[in-house]
Fold:
Amino acid sequence: MADLTTLDASSTPRRIAAGELGATELCRAFLDRTAALDPSIGAFLRVDAEGALASARSIDARVARGDSLDGLPLAGVVVAVKDNLSTRGLRTTCASRMLAEYVPPYDAHAVERLRAAGAVILGKTNLDEFAMGSSTENSAFFPTRNPWDRARTPGGSSGGSAAAVAARFSQVALGSDTGGSVRQPAALSGVVGLKPTYGRVSRWGLVAFASSLDVVSPMGATVEDVALLYAAIAGADARDATCALRPVERADLSLGPEVLRGLRVGVPREYFGDGLDADVASRVRSALDAIERAGAQLVELSMPHTRASLATYYVLAPAEASSNLARFDGVRYGLRVEADDLRGMYGATRDQGFGAEVKLRILLGTFSLSAGYAEAFYGKAQRVRTLIARDFAEAFAKVDVLATPTSPTVAFPLGERSGDPLSMYLADVCTLPPSLAGVPAVSVPAGLGASGLPVGLQLVGPLFSEARLLAVAHGVESLLGRVGAPSWS
Amino acid sequence: MAVDVSPERVRSTAELARLALRDDEVAPLAAQLRAVLAHVAELDAWDTEAVPPTAQVLDLAMTLRDDLPARGIDRATALSQAARTEQAAFVVPRFVAE
Structure:
């Protein structure tokens, strides 16, 4: 029998419904592969074999009874979930010592949706602590390695989810994207990652990092698989007041590269300046040439506030994080380090529970919100955020989508940027502007660079344009071909 | 805006954030904060005199769900993840003098 772990998510429910494949058989194939190979990658913080097999058996039981699988769009699909999404009864640690033993009493909204759609949740994936990082090296437990080159990072913070998909430990995965945490690891790991419009997916049960930026986001080996997962998790939820009420449009992926004919593709020059690796620039330029040959019109344009994004983000996100992470005080959940008085207990708990990067960001945020500095830092950054969002609104008056590199570099060596936060932050320089503007963006593989490592192309659309953006991404994917799977195993 | 990030400033900010930093953490954190804040100071170059702030991007009116009774998590579940509880309460160290 062919290796079941190469099966795409999109055809899985149909094949299970037709009796060609058992959900349990598929689940076991992924469990076996993960058990054998993940020790050399470190994608998962924990595998829930028992829970996954129980879900798979319930799908098989439905088929055996002759029940329809209609209404279960993810029937039997094997999913990995980033460990900052709450899973009822299954530890959710955010890769932090603070939550090392935390067992949520409820599922995140996106996890509820997965279960309701018939998905099989294989386990929880590694991340930078509380999603703060771009390499998955800030995990309190262990770093994740890139399946394309195990001496390199898979990117981050959703590096565990990206590596799980790239290494075929799961068919698709959920991550979260605050400033690029799904798109950048997707690019570095040779998979597809979509950050939907802010508010398109409920944040209920996602452990909060920066609430005005966090978006639960799907990853997969193909655009079709990502579209499938996106359709399952997007939509209104009354438990998140910032969750959009408007209906979710289905992506029509039937056109292939034809969707590119006549499309106006903006190419903002600020994304192609200093700091962009020649290898990445060359692959992205080749991809743009191919898109133009397929009938699209490339429109060079300027988005002048792009270079303010890094500074803006590193005021706003830490400010929100410093407030959100105040809840970890040793009282209601998580780590507690005893001390003689309440303040001592707070301080000791937070000092021992948080890692270095989280402490840095809490301090940054606390500082920029403190008396005397709040308007100069936080207020200023909020105003510059308006200018960045206006850049996008003006661009989308002229073009249908924007195309940029996803990351200025290919996957970088483990340890190369540890201890130098600013150099690590630059890994997200292309993904931050769409996050600040709230617009949807997807990273699709643009082939392998001269180094043999994957390069990502970022496509960005107007607010709530996911259906069209996915169709365009599918067209680009059809045109450029898939990068295939890494050969390490 | 130029900022002096002294070890004392790091300690006072940590106090606001309820972080009891160890002595050996202060100097590296001060250096990293200094580097990031120096970059952040570039925001001063942008004229935002007439620009309104963006707190969130969707321009949403505050949405309220229907006011319907619903069951939340029960007390035992709410207490189940706490390090110290007693009867129906979370226990914290004493914080008022006897």
